[in-house]
Write a structure and sequence with these properties.
Rossmann fold; 4 domains; 6-stranded mixed β-sheet; 16 strands; single chain; 428 residues
Length: 428
Amino acid sequence: MLLHVEPKRRGARTDRDAEARLAEAAGLTSAIGLSILAKYIVPLTEARPASLIGKGKVEEIAAEARALEPEVIIVNAALSPVQQRNLEKAWNAKVLDRTALILEIFGERARTREGRLQVELAHLTYQRSRLVRSWTHLERQRGGFGFLGGPGETQIETDRRLIGERIAKIKLELENVRRTRGLHRRARKRVPHQVIALVGYTNAGKSTLFNALTKSAVEARDMLFATLDPTMRGIRLPGGRRVVLSDTVGFIADLPVELIAAFRATLEEVLEADIIVHVRDVAHEESAAQKGDVLRVLAELGIDTEGDARILELLNKIDLLEPPARAALRARNGGEKAPVAVSALTGEGIPDFLARIEKMLGRQGLVMNLRLDPSDGAGMAWAYAHGRVLARRDRAKHVELSVAIDPDAQGRFEKRYGERASIATTSF
C-alpha cells in the first residue's frame, strides 16, 4: 500500500499537485520491485505528533490493511520514530517513510565502494534515531539496507554504540575519498582538462546525454535513480579542446538531509566544476517544479543559483514535444544566456549545446604564442599534449604555435618554454 500525505501549505511547491507527487512516489516504489496493491492521497490539515495523520484516517487505513494484508505500507512523508512505531502497531505492518524508501533504493543501486559507503552512512544516521524494539534486528535479503526485511542474511546489530563506531569509521574512509578526489582535481588542473558536471532531477536524461557525448554505456533507463555512482569520462569538443564530463546522482524533491550530507564528497565534483549543466526534462508536466527542487539542493551545497555564471540550463527530451513547441525552444539556442534545447536520445540540438560549452569555456582561457626551433620535436609534442593548438605557422628558421591554454597552465608553459613563450591579448 502507498499513501501520499498532502499537507496544506503556503508558498513552496504549490504548483505541484498531489496526484503528481503520488505518481512520483509510485515510481520510487516500483524502482525497488514492489507491487502496489492500493494507493491513496491523505489530506493533512494538521500534523499529529503521535501518528502524523488523524485517528479516523489511521483506522480507515487499518481496515484496508486487514483486507489487503500488505507486507509493507509506504508513507510518502517524513515520519518521526514515534509516528512510525505507532503506525506499525495500528496497521500491523512494516511502515516505511519517504526517507527509508529512498535509502532502500540507494542501497540496492550503489555499485562502487564509495557509493556503498555513502549510502550506508546515510542509512545508519537515519536508523540511529530509531532504535526501538521493532527495529533492533532487521534482516537483509537483497541489495538494499533491510527496511523491507526477509530471511536469508545476517541480522544488523543496531546497538547505538556499534552504530556510532561504524559511522565514525565510514566518515574517516569518506574523508580519505575526499582527499583523493582533491588530489585528482589538482592533477586535472595541471593539465587543460576542465570539468563539465551534469546535474538535474532524477530521470531527466543525464545518463542518456552522457552516453551520447562520450560514446559510453552508462546505465540509462526510464527509472528513478537509475544512476547513483558518479562517472567521469574525457571528451573532445568540436573545436579540439579536451574536457572531463561528470555524470552525477539525480536530485529529487524532499531529498533526505542524510543523503545530501552523505553524498557531499561526491557532489564536491559539482562544486569544483568549470561548468554546471542543469539537465531538465522539458516534456515532464512537473518540469518547472523539478527545476525548483534541483536549485534548492544546489543552494544547500553552497552554489549561488542566481548569480553563478557556470550554470547552463539544458532543456532535454524535446523529441517528446509537439513540433511547434520544439521549434520555438530550438530558436532560442543561440541566445547568450538562454537555455539550450536538445534531445539526448536523437541528437537534436547537441551541436548547439557543445558550441555553448566551448563559448563558456572560452571566456576562461588564454592563448600562448610559442616560437620553437623546427628540430624541437619534444617541445612541439608537449604543446600539443598540454594545450589546444589553434594555429601553426612554419617559418624559414622557426615554427610559431598559437596554443589555447587554461589560466592555471600559464606558469607551466612559461617554465617549459621560457623566453620562447608569450601571452596573446586575444581570448578564444
